[in-house]
Amino acid sequence: MSFESAVVAGGTLKIRDARVIVCSPGRNFVTLKIETDEGVYGIGDATLNGRELSVVSYLQDHVVPNLIGRDAHRIEDIWQFLYRGAYWRRGPVTMTAIAAVDTALWDIKAKAAGMALYQLLGGRSRDGVLVYGHANGADIEETVDQVGRYIGMGYRAVRAQSGVPGVKGAYGVGRGDLYYEPADGTLPTETLWSTSAYLNHAPKLFERLREAHGPEIELLHDVHHRLTPIEAARLGKALEPFRLFWMEDSTPAENQEAFRLIRQHTVTPLAVGEIFNSIHDCRELIQNQLIDYIRTTVVHAGGITHLRRIADLASLYQVRTGSHGATDLSPACMGAALHFDTWVPNFGIQEYMRHTPETDEVFPHDYSFDDGYLRVGETPGHGVDIDEELAARYPYKPMQLPVARLTDGTLWNW
Ligand code: CS2
Ligand code: MG
Q1: Residue 117 and residue 381 in contact, taking contact as beta carbons nearer than 8 Å
Q2: In this predicted structure, what is the pLDDT of residue 48?
């Protein structure tokens, strides 16, 4: 069967090989590359920050042998096979591995069709994808300056985080310029957390930001799971005068019902979902309209196939998307996410943390930033490739995410 007949005559594209590429151009990335008999290939991100090798093993030892010989066009069937067929459903490792397969297969299908991926999803719903960047500083004034720098670069939305007096290693104040890298040691760095110091500080940051930068710029803030529901409610209320675009991950969401309490007390929009990996993690949050933005993303929530299901459910309840896009999600995830964002009707915003120049070189891509928006190119597929030779020059480095402890030593949520 020729490549052309596989496209036009409902033919098959047989999977010949699939392999996992691990590299560390500034940070670790796991990439799955699937090749077909006809020479067309696709790539998918499989990076699970701080737990990378578990997905490598899941893919190499358990998934790849199941892919060889299958028809790459049967994306839905392969998704169901990997999800139902494993017996063990959900979970970050499983769903990241499935996402990598799914992303690579969508890349292949779009290349085979000669179309940019967003076209296969239903076509363009918007001209550009609104993104938010990350501004952070050791103190309030440094954060105010950094937000100004992002505005100067053309951003229309900026997430703002600042160091908190008396809190060593407060979340969001990272190393690196224009990118933020929290995984920083072979063993976890221990950071400190004080809820009362933070709750006193955060409203002051946003008061200063509005004073310095005016009412137009969209401001976002990530609480990174640190508060209890009633504390989150208090913060949301205190931030209301500064009109945030969203308050993110204000409390851990294993207990979805907890968001009801926050909701009852504040009109600050709520966002959650970067660590969710299935529709079941957010079903109650969405159906009860307890959140405004769902932040699940391609790589950790089962790929485009599953993310689309989450977005469709969310659209029934006026919940919009806001996919996670930190530096630890590879350009292959970003490319796929941007095609998804270009199509999805209930789009909200996309996080865009820049990658290091080394990462950008290893993953050539055709998306670009302009005037506060990311725009996908028209290259068939999701528009992101991997330079395997270059990748091989950056071997894997064990790195873990930090942990946080309260001032009395109790382990807390990082
Ligand atoms: C963060 C991430 O981007 C975000 O919203 O919560 O920086 C997160 O800490 C990392 O992706 C963890 O791997
Ligand atoms: Mg976050």
Answers
A1: yes
A2: 98
Catalytic residue among 224, 225, 300, 339: 224
Q: Are residues 201 and 66 in the same domain?
A: no
pLDDT tens digits along 316-329: 999 999 999 999 99
Strand order in the sheet with 411-412: 190-193, 403-406, 411-412
Question: From CA 78, how far away is CA 104, in angstroms rounded?
Answer: 12
User: Which of 47, 134, 171, 224 maximizes ligand 1 atoms within 8 Å of its Cβ, making it the mutation to test the pocket?
Assistant: 224
Tell the residue nearest (CA) to atom 8 of ligand 1.
326
Do both 81 and 125 map to the same domain? no
**pLDDT for the residue numbered 293:** 99
Residue 373, domain extent:
121-379
Same domain, 7 and 73: yes
Which numbered atom of ligand 1 lies nearest the CA of 222? 5
Establish whether 171 is a catalytic residue. Answer: yes
Biggest CA–CA distance in the chain, Å, is 67
**Are 148 and 272 in the same domain?**
yes
- Please list, in sequence order, all residues whose beta carbon lies within 8 angstroms of the beta carbon of residue 209, skipping any fewer than 6 positions away: 143, 144, 147, 160, 219, 242
Q: Give dist(CA 154, CA 327) in Å, integer.
A: 20
Q: Is the pLDDT of residue 78 over 70?
A: yes
Q: Is 385 strand, coil or helix?
A: coil
Whether residue 224 lies in the annotated active site: yes
Spatial contact of 232 and 198, defined as CB atoms under 8 Å apart: no
Average pLDDT taken over every residue of the chain: 95
Q: How far apart are CA 328 and CA 212, in angstroms?
A: 31
Is the CB of residue 50 less than 8 Å from the CB of residue 183? yes
Question: Is 332 domain-assigned?
Answer: yes
pLDDT-derived band at 103 (thresholds 50, 70, 90) equals: very high
User: CB of 83 within 8 A of CB of 89?
Assistant: yes
| pLDDT value, residue 11 | 80
pLDDT of 155 > 70? The answer is yes
296, 217: one domain = yes
Rounded to 5 degrees, φ, ψ at 257 are -60, -25
Q: Which amino acid is at 204?
A: K
In 3D space, the residue among 6, 341, 399, 373 whose CA is nearest the CA of residue 153 turns out to be 373
Domain boundary at 69, 101, 117, which?
117
The number of folded domains in the chain is 2
Please report which helix (H) or strand (E) contains residue 338, including its range.
Answer: helix 331-343
